[in-house]
Automatic annotation (TrEMBL):
One Pfam short name: DUF502
Chain ranges passing through the membrane: 20-40, 60-83
Annotated source species: Rhizobium terricola
Domain of life: Bacteria
The protein, known as: DUF502 domain-containing protein
Taxonomic lineage of the native organism: Bacteria, Pseudomonadati, Pseudomonadota, Alphaproteobacteria, Hyphomicrobiales
The entry's keywords: Membrane, Transmembrane, Transmembrane helix
InterPro entries the record matches: COV1-like (IPR007462)
Signal peptide start-end: none
Length: 232
């Protein structure tokens, strides 16, 4: 009976490895489908109630059309963006903003939200396009951060009195990087990395398990020596 134990353990190990491999393959696909499906239904629940019945194809069909509300929302947002670029559209937007600016509480929320979207979505913006390391929470301990922008205004004046340039960085927690801390650090204390923000997010979410590939200069030279580029 003792001779059978290694075979049984080997079979159990193979089954476990096969299960873990299948889990690695299926789990991301299932989570992606679930998140996409949830987002589509969420968008439909917000948009469909405002669509007149005569324009809603579900009024003539016996089944629901997932994503129809999301499609309408994308079309409307794109149309508003198109109209907002001409003279009439800009006049309407300016008039609407002037009304919002007269509302004590609403104007604060509107200004802050608009500034965030303009900063993040601006084509030439460099916000959150770089990843770096800072010593946090104590010297010798390093934390991953996303570079936001250079410190400006009063913060730059107060913190840069000794001539040191300050940088605004976002320190996100693991494994859900949707909240975190806004920190201002000296540029000399920030170590920029070559990884992209997408790779940095993967590193955070996986708690360090998914590490982006990094090739040093020595490694690249060794690869070129083994596989020299073809001559043209």
């Amino acid at each position: 009976m003792n001779d059978d134990n290694p075979d049984r353990l080997s079979l159990a190990t193979r089954l476990r490895n096969n299960f873990l491999t299948g889990l690695i393959i299926c789990a991301p696909i299932a989570i992606t489908i679930w998140l996409t499906w949830t987002f589509i239904h969420w968008a439909d629940s917000w948009v469909k109630p405002y669509i007149p019945n005569r324009y809603n194809p579900e009024s003539y069909l016996q089944f629901a059309i997932p994503g129809f509300g999301l499609l309408i929302a994308l079309v409307v947002i794109t149309l508003i963006g198109f109209l907002g670029k001409n003279l009439i559209g800009r006049s309407i937007v300016s008039y609407s903003e002037s009304i919002l600016h007269r509302m004590p509480l609403v104007r604060t929320v509107y200004k802050s939200t608009k500034q965030i979207f303009e900063t993040v979505l601006k084509e030439q913006s460099s916000s959150f396009k770089k990843v770096g390391l800072i010593e946090f929470p104590s010297p010798g301990t390093w934390a991953l951060v996303f570079v936001s922008t250079d410190a400006k205004g009063e913060i730059a004046a107060r913190l840069g009195e000794d001539g040191e340039e300050m940088v605004a960085v976002f320190l996100a927690p693991t494994p859900v990087p949707t909240a975190g801390f806004l920190m201002f650090v000296p540029r000399s204390k920030l170590k920029l990395l070559d990884m992209s923000p997408e790779e940095g997010v993967k590193l955070l979410i996986s708690a360090g398990l998914v590490t982006p590939e990094y090739k040093t200069a020595a490694t690249e030279e060794a690869e070129k020596a083994v596989n020299p580029p073809a001559e043209t």
